[in-house]
Design a protein that fits this description.
The complex is a heterodimer of chains A (260) and B (479). Chain A has 260 residues and is α/β, with parallel strands linked by helices. Chain A has 8 helices and 12 strands. In chain A, helix 4 packs across helix 5 and helix 5 runs parallel beside helix 6. The chains are: A alpha/beta (260), B alpha/beta (479).
Chain lengths: 260, 479
């Protein structure tokens, strides 16, 4: 479903992703772990089409199509969803109105009929209950004044509403209490199907206890330096990322005396 | 009597010559006031860039247009054939559901107006008729600037205004429905100035809402020099709205002066979308203790447009409150100006005054000048002011697009979010709906211009990469 091949991305003159390769098949859940600043959010943003990141080499195929050639809204319509590490506040735009506008934009792009306000109310209410989000937050401006946990619930609500085929969740579990973590895990589980896939970017093993991934990858220095099964997450939890946080190559140890 | 004899000299360099005989219907005090005002203009001239308050707004192009007042009666039949090519009623639209008074080119047009219920003792009249039958009610209003005018346009109104509307509410009178005044500028004849004047005398404890809608049809340039004077007596409450939707060739100058008595409340709401050059002055004097004023403004300034907002809040009494929020959305090569001035006079102890101006620039060429000013001469006051200029938040734009909302629709959604704070202050119901419709209609071309890949879009695509600072503006993202 998703093939990332030797991806190089930079911001300004700084290269952040340096030859990242990753393949995610339909039906799979992958976890991407790595130290702070290793490029996890950059990967997520590049996949969603964020502007200032320039892809200087490599390619990304989504269902065989060139993902990088698509606008962010085209990617969304094609089923790519990014759960933001830092969801954005949009003053003056009511959450409910935003959700309906986005859902209808997606439905239009997917050739489906738009959903009217009344019908939408019922759909939104169902999702809201699933993520156990305060009803009042539906009428407030998008994420405006939401607590960290409320913002993350709102991200999961959107994921459930927009029914993506590929969900990329960027540290959706960070800073969540155990209840919220359960909500996130349940949300992702409910989308799990032979036709969908998820990439969970996370710092901790906690989420992976609720949601066992098919593969775990370690991102360090802008590339995947190690991949393994679910047991890798436990290993990382025990030993940390020591040894991964340099720009070393996967095959070769860092040259001694190179100064890096 | 020929038209020429009733026409005031066209150009300021020739001085302002009133008709020698004056207007025959003028009471003596008015004739004296008119001559005094005309003399003031001749002596002081018109505002130019040298005047601090007019630094950014040129009125020269408007001065090329005659100050003609082509009637001495101030009364003519609007539908009686003067404007055969225009169906004026169609222009007016559906109305707000209450009383609607129509003023065409500065003159009351009874045939187009809809009267409604008024509490007993309340008077609603054309200013022309009121000058004839109740001149004592109006005489004080012609002497507000007896110590000198702030600028020539106010003086011109004193010199030349012959018609408009008087709303005179006795003590405790309550008018529930908004009183709508539509001021229409009609092209098709020689371009000219009009000087409509609206006077609202709100007796103690009375309550009313007044909505001024300034409309024009596309065509020749015209100049509106509108003056509204509001006296809010002790304990009275007046909500005032200006919807400025003039045609894009025209010049619009409006001044709203409000004097507030003890424990009175006044609110001014402005929505400006029209005109080539628009200047909207609001001048409020809080001279009774415990008075409260709210000033909210929204200007949508498109390519080729210039909107200047000049505000003076004068705290002259104990314990008064004022609250201002003005927002501007400027697109293309439009130019917005916010000149907000708060004065807290000696003795105005306990004043609570707040002022905010936020502006959103939608294009590289859009410009805004914002000058919030605070002058405090009293102790124990709580005053804040601030201004911000920014562009659409690139993070928010990306967030929306990542949810599938197309680029231009996402921009429109962010702009509507930005303006919502001001629209929320418009009264629920027909007034808010009218304002929202107008805003939507004016944002649509801004957004579709972007969609066609003309100015807005090329600018917007670089939004995210570029620093938010703009010429003569403070940085930051407008929220
Ligand atoms: N917009 C940006 N401008 C400059 N540097 C950035 C920007 N975004 C990320 N970086 C840098 O890129 C590196 C990777 O960041 P990020 O992808 O956010 O890491 P992670 O999500 O793994 O913590 C960091 O060194 C960060 O400082
Ligand atoms: Mg991150």
């Amino acid at each position: 479903m998703l093939l990332i091949d030797d991806l190089h991305a930079s911001i300004g003159d700084t290269e952040i992703l340096s030859g990242l390769s990753l393949e995610v098949a339909a039906g799979e859940v992958h976890a991407v772990m790595g130290p702070n600043g290793s490029g996890k959010s950059t990967l997520a943003h590049v996949l969603a089409g964020r502007d200032p990141y320039q892809v200087t080499a490599g390619r990304v195929l989504y269902d065989g199509a060139d993902l990088l050639a698509m606008t962010p809204e085209e990617r969304a319509a094609a089923g790519v969803f990014l759960g933001f590490q830092h969801p954005v506040e949009i003053p003056g735009v009511a959450n409910m109105y935003f959700l309906r506008t986005a859902l209808n934009a997606l439905r239009r792009a997917r050739g489906l009929d738009e959903v009217g306000p009344v019908e939408f109310l019922a759909i939104a209410e169902e999702k809201r209950r699933l993520v156990e989000m305060d009803r009042m937050l539906m009428d407030r401006p998008v994420n405006d004044g939401f607590s960290g946990g409320e913002k993350k619930r709102n991200e999961i609500l959107q994921m459930l509403l927009f029914e993506p085929r590929l969900a990329i969740l960027d540290e959706t579990d960070s800073g969540l209490d155990i209840d919220a973590l359960r909500v996130v895990a349940a949300g992702v589980s409910s989308l799990r199907s032979p036709d969908t896939a998820a990439i969970l970017i996370t710092h901790h093993q906690r989420l992976l206890d609720h949601l066992v991934p098919d593969r775990v990858h370690v991102l360090a220095g802008g590339r995947i330096v190690r991949s393994g099964g679910p047991e890798l997450a436990a290993e990382l939890e025990a030993h940390g990322y020591a040894g991964f946080d340099t720009r070393c190559s996967r095959e070769l140890p860092a040259p001694i005396g190179s100064g890096r | 009597m020929t038209l020429a004899a009733r026409t005031v000299s066209a150009h300021p360099s020739e001085g302002l010559q009133l008709p020698l005989a004056g207007w025959p219907s003028d009471p003596d005090w008015l004739a004296v006031a008119r001559r005094g005002a005309a003399a003031w203009v001749t002596a002081n001239g018109f505002p130019s860039a040298k005047h601090e308050d007019w630094r950014y707004t040129r009125i020269d192009p408007a001065l090329a247009i005659p100050f003609a007042t082509d009637t001495d009666t101030g009364r003519r039949t609007a539908t009686g054939g003067s404007w055969p090519d225009v169906s004026l009623r169609d222009l007016l639209g559906p109305g707000l559901g209450g009383i609607r008074l129509v003023v065409v080119d500065g003159h009351f047009a009874p045939e187009l107006s809809d009267h409604g219920y008024l509490p007993s003792g309340a008077r609603l009249d054309s200013l022309h008729d009121a000058l004839a039958v109740a001149p004592h009610r109006l005489e004080p209003l012609w002497s507000w600037h007896s110590n000198g005018y702030p600028h020539a346009l106010r003086a011109l109104s004193d010199a030349l205004a012959t018609d408009g509307i008087l709303i005179d509410l006795p003590t405790e009178a309550v008018v529930d429905d908004p009183i709508e005044i539509v001021l229409l500028t009609v092209p098709g004849r020689a371009p000219h100035w009009s000087h409509p004047r609206i006077v609202v005398l709100a007796g103690a404890g009375s309550k009313a809402t007044v909505v001024e809608t300034h409309l024009g049809v596309p065509g020749q340039p015209s100049v509106t020099n509108a003056l509204t004077q509001v006296v809010v007596d002790d304990g009275a409450q007046v909500a005032h709205y200006v919807i400025q939707d003039e045609n894009l060739d025209s010049f619009h100058f409006s001044s709203l002066d409000a004097h507030l008595g003890h424990s009175s409340r006044f609110s001014s709401r402005l929505l400006a979308v029209g005109g080539r050059i628009g200047r909207h002055e609001v001048h409020t004097v809080l001279h009774g203790e415990n008075a409260e004023v709210e000033l909210h403004g929204l200007f949508l300034t498109g390519s080729g447009q210039h909107h200047d907002n000049a505000i003076l809040v004068d705290h002259a009494a104990l314990g008064c409150r004022s609250h201002q929020i003005y927002k501007g959305v400027i697109d293309g090569d439009g130019h917005g100006v916010f000149n907000g001035h708060i004065v807290v006079r000696p003795g105005a102890v306990g004043t609570d005054a707040h002022q905010t101006n936020k502006n959103l620039l939608l294009s590289d060429r859009a410009e805004v000048d914002t000058r919030p000013r605070l002058e405090i001469f009293a102790d124990d006051v709580a005053c804040t002011h601030g201004a911000a200029v920014g562009q659409l938040d690139p993070d928010a734009l990306f967030y929306l697009r990542s949810r599938g909302v197309p680029h231009q629709e996402a921009r429109a959604l962010l702009v509507s979010g930005f303006v919502q704070e001001v629209l929320d202050c418009f009264a629920d119901g027909p007034i808010r709906q009218y304002a929202e419709r107008l805003v939507a209609a004016h944002l649509e071309p801004i957004m579709s211009a972007g969609r066609r890949g003309t100015d807005s879009a090329s600018d917007s695509d670089s939004d995210s990469a570029r620093d938010v600072s703009a010429s003569r503006s403070r940085g930051g993202t407008a929220k």
